[in-house]
Design goal:
The protein is α+β, with helices and mostly antiparallel strands. It has helices spanning 2-10, 16-37, 82-94, 120-124, 148-156, 172-186, 190-199, 242-245, 252-263, 270-276, and strands at residues 41-48, 51-62, 67-68, 75-76, 137-138, 141-142, 208-209, 223-225, 231-233, 248-250, 307-312, 318-324, 329-335. The chain is built from 10 helices and 13 strands. The strands form 4 sheets. A 6-stranded antiparallel β-sheet has the order 3-2-1-13-12-11, with helices on both faces. The longest helix has 22 residues, at 16-37.
Length: 336
């Protein structure tokens, strides 16, 4: 669906008549897909050469109260926020406050012996060997609330799926530990670091950590499809995983600012972004990009052909960010 949208927009020129015609075609296409897949609400932004050329909302971000979706609606972006965590690490790296080769025993006490071989670069590249598990379940059900300490304790009980640097497995545990390292190195809470070092400088005013028990203006309700294909509330989003593991929520307008920050080096030097685009090499010399479909990079988790940041979350809740760097062209689409 997103690729059709991109191709429609790429072929536009700068004449007003053609832009209006294309905008109408895009609107029609989105509404058709919204109806076809029964999507409650959609917000979309299109960025060309650093400028937003389209920003629109379709449908509702809350069905109970018929709250319209707009370009400032706040959607949980799930694992897209890993690139934000990775950027925080690289900011500290540029300041000389950490090395990517630093191992976990530098930052954590009373840890399993095998953690002492895991370096920051292994967390960033998903080559630590840690499982993709952060929160403990009881009778295969998550709790409604966790503390950071509980999540950390659960990760410490895990065994490695493979020796560090010998393989690749996507793991939220890696980036949870990176968030803790940001706190330890910066001397700030993770949320305060994001606020003062990223969100405020970039003027991202519609971005926040989503605590499900707090009222957040313009926050989209998360939905998914039941077995009979009807739309129901996604109750998983009503679990409080604490200030680190809770989702970050943002709007398409704010994420356009984030896209520009990455594209035009507003937070990091070009050398750091080059490193973030470099495929990771395993202990035996194999390149991670040869092992993993669509997930190849040391930090940003972006495909090899430099197209996209993509995450498809549970059910019908989706967040898509597609970037074509060679054309300086991006599309951001978020759905409730």
């Amino acid at each position: 669906m997103i690729f059709i949208l991109v191709f429609v927009l790429i072929q536009t020129t700068n004449t007003n008549a053609q832009l209006v015609s294309t905008d109408s075609l895009v609107n029609t296409f989105i509404r058709e897909q919204q109806t076809k897949y029964n999507i409650p609400g959609i917000a979309v932004a299109v960025i060309s050469k650093g400028q937003i050329i389209k920003a629109s909302g379709f449908g509702y971000i809350n069905l109970d109260n018929k709250v319209p979706a707009t370009p400032t609606s706040i959607f949980a972006i799930a694992s897209i926020d890993k690139q934000i965590t990775a950027t925080a690490i690289m900011m500290l790296y540029e300041q000389g406050k950490l090395k990517l080769e630093n191992t976990l025993d530098i930052y954590f006490d009373s840890i399993p012996d095998f953690w002492k071989t895991i370096a920051i670069k292994n967390l960033l590249s998903h080559t630590s060997g840690l499982s993709d598990e952060v929160s403990e379940k009881i009778n295969d059900r998550v709790l409604i609330e966790y503390t950071t300490e509980e999540l950390f304790a659960h990760i410490k009980k895990q065994t490695l799926e493979f020796e560090t640097g010998e393989g690749w497995v996507y793991s939220d545990a890696n980036f949870f530990l990176l968030q803790l390292i940001v706190e330890k190195v910066s001397g700030m809470s993770y949320s305060e670091f994001l606020k003062t070092k990223m969100l405020e400088p970039l003027e991202m005013t519609h971005t926040a950590t989503i605590n499900p028990f707090k009222v957040i203006n313009e926050k989209a309700t998360a939905y998914w499809k039941s077995e009979d294909k009807s739309v129901i509330v996604n109750t998983y989003r009503y679990v409080d995983f604490g200030p680190l593991y809770n989702d970050i929520g943002t709007s398409v307008l704010d994420f356009a600012k984030w896209d520009n920050a990455i594209t035009y080096n507003k937070l990091l030097k070009q050398s750091s972004y080059d490193l973030m685009w470099t495929p990771f090499i395993l202990n035996d010399g194999r390149q991670v990009s040869n092992l993993v479909d669509n997930h190849t990079l040391l930090l940003l988790i972006i495909p090899t052909d430099m197209v996209g940041y993509y995450i498809n979350s549970e059910g019908i809740k989706e967040c898509i960010m597609l970037v074509i760097q060679a054309l300086q062209f991006s599309v951001c689409m978020m759905t409730a």
